[in-house]
From TrEMBL:
It holds the Pfam family ABC_tran. The keyword Nucleotide-binding applies. The keyword ATP-binding applies. Signal peptide: none annotated. GO terms for molecular function: ATP binding; ATP hydrolysis activity. PROSITE patterns: ABC_TRANSPORTER_1, ABC_TRANSPORTER_2. This is ABC transporter ATP-binding protein. Keywords: ATP-binding, Nucleotide-binding. Residues 1-227 form the ABC transporter domain. InterPro entries: AAA+_ATPase, ABC_transporter-like_ATP-bd, ABC_transporter-like_CS, P-loop_NTPase. It comes from Paracoccus siganidrum. It comes from the Bacteria.
Length: 246
């Protein structure tokens, strides 16, 4: 994904300004920023889902080509139909109409296994808890098997174990050569699992780079208004918010 001078206005007010961003294979990029910074707008504009100025390599594609290039997990998690979880996950295969049925079944099975949904595969998706529904929707995106996964707050509402599962899964996808761009509010998990962080502030990129260079005291004070402790432990980089700056 390649964004050049991407901008979005609403009611004459700029929401995003001159965003330049490239996500390559093997990267797990965490998109950070306070509420209202423009994270969801950036993801949707990058995918061509809302009008924007500038250029996005995905937005210029046709729908079918874009679906094969990038899978999208939106922030909203409404499931309207009481279809079995397995059928919900299989919807991700719509992006590959010419694939063999065996390939479709294998992709669905891999996604179900990755999100620990084996015991839920025959349950109506509408009867799942909110966290279980989130895992099912992530599995649907994985079944799409696109080289780029774009996820808007994918771990919101998940219990701590499920959050770690999902972040490990995304890191593994990147390690296998895929690309992942996910908006995240948990800076601790972002610091630990992401290979790169992009911090938004008032519609612009305030910082972009490895977690150690983005989660600095100056950036955290300017963008989030907090102090925090950052250290490296046995599990990797550890981040702990400490206080609000008066």
């Amino acid at each position: 994904m390649d964004l050049q001078d991407l901008g979005v206005c609403r009611n004459g007010r700029p929401v995003l300004e001159r965003i330049g961003l490239r996500i390559g294979a093997g990267e797990f990029v965490g998109l950070l920023g306070p509420n209202g910074a423009g994270k969801t707008t950036l993801l949707r504009a990058a995918l061509g889902l809302l009008p924007a100025e500038g250029r996005s390599s995905l937005a210029v594609m046709g729908n079918a080509e874009r679906a094969r290039a990038a899978a999208f997990m939106p922030q909203g998690r409404e499931i309207a139909w009481p279809m079995p979880v397995e059928s919900l996950v299989a919807l991700g295969r719509i992006a590959h109409p010419g694939a063999a049925r065996a390939a479709d079944r294998a992709a669905v099975q891999r996604a179900i296994t990755a999100l620990h949904l084996e015991d839920l595969r025959h349950r109506p998706a509408t009867e799942l808890s909110g966290g279980e529904q989130a895992r099912a929707l992530i599995a649907r995106a994985l079944a799409q098997e696109s080289p780029l996964l774009v996820a808007d707050e994918p771990i919101a509402g998940l219990d701590p174990a499920a959050q770690i599962w999902v972040m490990r899964l995304f890191a593994r996808l990147a390690g296998q050569g895929g690309g992942v761009l996910a908006s995240l509010h948990d800076l601790g998990l972002a610091a630990r699992f992401c290979t790169r962080l992009v911090m938004l502030h008032q519609g612009r990129i305030a910082a972009d780079g490895p977690p150690e260079t983005v989660l600095t005291a100056a950036n955290l004070a300017r963008v989030f208004g907090i102090t925090a402790h950052l250290a490296r432990g046995p599990q990797g980089l550890l981040f702990q918010p400490l206080d609000i700056i008066p």
